[in-house]
Design brief:
globular; mainly alpha; 69% helix; 7 helices
Length: 140
Amino acid sequence: MCEGPEEIEASLSRLVAGLEVSSLAGFEAKRLVGVFPRLERLATAAKALCAQRVASVASHELDGHRSAGSWLAAESGESIGSALSLLEAAGQLVGLPELADAFRSGELSGSQAKEVAGAAAVDPSAVTELLDAARTENLE
């Protein structure tokens, strides 16, 4: 059975709390630096998708927030602009399965997904080309 989010968070918390960076060999530290950005992107994708669901069923109102953006900003500690941007990116994934798969797999950051989705809205046939560019170039 797959671990739930709470167990994954607890495992990662233990890993970070127990990380003795001075005992790591340089190649080990380098490998970890390569792993953590992907974890960040995966967490961002999960946050975006779940936040989009909160927005779609207006669960944010249960906490007294008028908008899902203000709720997400308060929940995540980011600016309202960043929260709205992430919600917008998640909303744009509908109808773009190739982009959704890339975002869900941790290949793209939230802002990369938003950029690709925005450009794909203009030319949906260019999704593959846009994804290739996002994977190899810094779109942020």
